Amino acid sequence: MTVNTWIKKDLRYLWHPYTQMKDCRGTPPILIERAKGMKLYDSDGNHYFDTISSWWCNIHGHNRPEINRAIREQLKLFEHVMFAGFTHRNAITLAERLVSIAPESLSRVFFSDNGSTAVETALKMSFQYWRNIGKRGKKSFVHLDYAYHGDTLGAMSVGGVDLFGGLFKPLFFHSFKVPTPYCYRCPAGKYRYPACRLECVKPLEKTLEDNHGRIAAMIIEPLVLAAGGMIIYPAEYLKKARELTDRYGVHLIVDEVATGFGRTGRMFASEHARIEPDFLCLSKGITSGYLPLGATLTTEKVYRAFYDDYFKKKTFYHGHTYTANPISCSAAIASLDIFEKEKALKRAGKVMAYFHKRLEDFRGIDIVGDVRYIGMIGALELVKDRSTKRPFGLKERKGMEVYREALKRGLLLRPLGNIIYFYLPLCAEKNELEYILDQTYDIIWNSTK
Ligand SMILES: *Cc1c(COP(=O)(O)O)cnc(C)c1O
């Protein structure tokens, strides 16, 4: 079958996620045949640098022999087993290792199979915790504007991205939305951190003060609101959120689905603020982008509130068919081994310094309103008018224009609206980055003409 026939069949039978299928007439999906390191190879022999790590999940590069081997070893034994009444070595090993690298407060691991389910698990556990200890009024949540926690209805109820979630609002449960520490578009109208003294935390304080009796948990993406536009905020805000939730007896759920496993330069982004959350949600990078797996970590205190005689009805009735899939767990263990053996974080640290320095150059382009970065994440916010920060409109599709041009130059540079960003794997080499940033600079520069 020719490539064209494959694509025709794709458009005949499939419906792609986050895609206006009408766009596929002009920009059809690209048929990928193989991948290695940072590169994806298509059926015509072209390659594309995977600058967004296949939707933020790849960590050590594509097609890693060590992870391939671990999966093959598990396949010699068995593929899956139900996780109630049965267990297996991979899940036990992985749970122990996750607890050993996670913030100290966390000692229990509940597995699921993706990021949304890791979040749903945390929300339901928090809600039920308060029921189990007799505080039945605590059934609301707090989330940030621009937050993203997944696409299931529960996760969307605590989401703040109107473009994705606005339509579904009538189906959501109640959650208080507080402003985001989005420094470029400061919600408190200030100019600079730390001179602003973190004014933007006040609405959170007020919300907790007035409603803590009704609030089970606050959920937050630590340091980076990824899908909301790669908004990077000061660690101090996260620290304050922990202080305030502690003060008012509210759980803190830290959603590290996107930031976990080294992306921000630390194993977990929470480490930048040295906080101890009540729940930690993991997925995406956990198997280094190989297989679906989710994990929700929590404290012994939460665990104990569910531990009782069966008839007391404190059991956590929640689970997913592919919970703790042994093949997924084997990939996750192999990925953690690579972190240790290759000192992947330390090595990537050098590349990060170069990456950040090069990103600063983009400030010289007129339509680049803001440049922000942390670890292997970097974002350029394109604006129509720099002085007023007016964004490009939905019809202009500036991001799409950059995306199409980037493909021609061998880059996968999928934007979030007007935000062009990089979400690099830890294996990225300096010379690869050099090419990626040179090309991106050129594309954005040319698009101003
Ligand atoms: C992607 C993402 C999710 C949802 O993960 P899925 O595996 O796509 O369901 C949840 N939280 C954050 C922060 C994410 O970036």
Textual characterization of the structure:
This protein has 449 residues and is an alpha/beta fold. The protein has two domains: 31-63 and 344-446, Aspartate Aminotransferase, domain 1 (Alpha-Beta Complex), CATH 3.90.1150; 69-341, Type I PLP-dependent aspartate aminotransferase-like (Major domain) (Aspartate Aminotransferase, domain 2). Helices cover 35% and strands 17% of the residues. The chain contains 14 helices and 17 strands. The protein has helices spanning 3-13, 53-56, 65-75, 89-101, 115-132, 153-157, 162-165, 202-211, 235-247, 300-304, 326-341, 344-360, 398-408, 430-447, and strands at 32-36, 39-42, 47-50, 108-112, 140-144, 175-178, 215-220, 224-225, 231-232, 251-255, 279-282, 294-298, 368-374, 377-385, 390-391, 411-412, 419-423. The strands form four sheets. Strands 4-12-11-10-7-5-6 form a seven-stranded mixed beta sheet, sandwiched between helices. The protein has a four-stranded mixed beta sheet with strand order 1-2-3-16. Helix 3 runs antiparallel to helix 11 and helix 13 (398-408) crosses helix 14. It is globular and about 65 Å long. The mean pLDDT is 96. Residues 114-116, 119, 148-150, 221, 226-227, 255, 257-258, 283-284 line the site of pyridoxal-5'-phosphate.
